Fold this protein.
Amino acid sequence: MSKKIVITGLGAFSPLGATAPDSWEALLRGGSGARPIEPKGVFESIELPVTFAASVAVDPSEKLERVVARRLDPSSQYALIAGREAFADAGLTEDSVDPERLLVDWATGIGGVWSLLDAWDTLRERGARRVMPLTVPMLMPNAAGAAIGMHLNARAGIRTAVSACASSTESIIQAYEHLQQGLADVVIAGGSEAAIHPLPVAAFAAMQALSKRNDNPEAASRPYDVDRDGFVLGEGAAALILETEEHALARGAKIYAEVAGGGITADAYHITAPEPEGLGASRAIEQALRVADASPEDIAHINAHATSTPVGDIAEYNAFKRVLGARVDEVPVSATKAATGHLLGGAGAIEALFTARALSENLLPPTINLENQDPEIGLDVVTSPREVNLASGSLAVSTSFGFGGHNAVLALRKI
């Protein structure tokens, strides 16, 4: 892996804000995207055990043309908004990059669930002739990446990773590899999800994965806290522009951070539970370090997967112990899902975005809602914005783990 790959553009459409800067600033302020689900539409007549989620901060209609939005599932709407922002943030235009050298590596965990379930309701209630002709193109998992690719004229390829909550970290790792292979000059990478629908909410609640703090949604996601009881279902998208450093410098682009490497492994243990000792997760971290030609001593910051589940947070801590050893309580850790909720297939991308900003600004984002840290988790958790003086070459890792035993870890390096 001889080429240096860098991040030159960021975009986000999240529960914290309608843009990447808005989301970052809200994160630093200690904001929360969790809020009660409005009892209207399909939610109006259904009683659910969990009545809150982390929905996007603004309606996508404020960011998309009506004719475009009508042809896209919400997950694709969010993706297109974030992708366009990242492309512009990188200083790119359709005329500034050869379409045959522009590639999309996108991700989702579930895909167009709203389009699928809305079409089923239409079929049952109004008959087959009333089902929208665009239903399949709207529900397919690759629809979000295709929307970005068509709107930005990306002809080098459009790839979609579907690996549950590890999906968008995988998409960024794949973007890194595709640039190393010379398949493109610029890659739009990231992920999106829009699964705040009664069925996924009921299903996640049935498996005891969601917090049930209906009386206090903003405090519900509490990674590492002794009283954590599950994650908050979130939605949104985040996009990153990756390119070779040579290409970026030649066009005078700003650079947020270097993508130093990535690691992908599998637990092969259980369809939902993580391997409790963190064996697969630690191997993914070690693999990312090897690709980055780095050692555990180089890690200066971690943006953890940290879903706020009793079992998951412990398993991830065990992975950190395996990699860091005696340094496990010295490396500052941010758990930003406490603020954003869990974006499923979009989680890794927004956490990579936050990690890149942290390196760029020497400012580590806070973990909110940690009131009583679990004594079994001996981490240095960042609970308020922390200014640091990171030297050039300092490494940060962003970890993502998904149902099915998927482990994906991204290593970013400060420029």
Remarks:
- Residues 74-89 form the longest helix (16 residues).
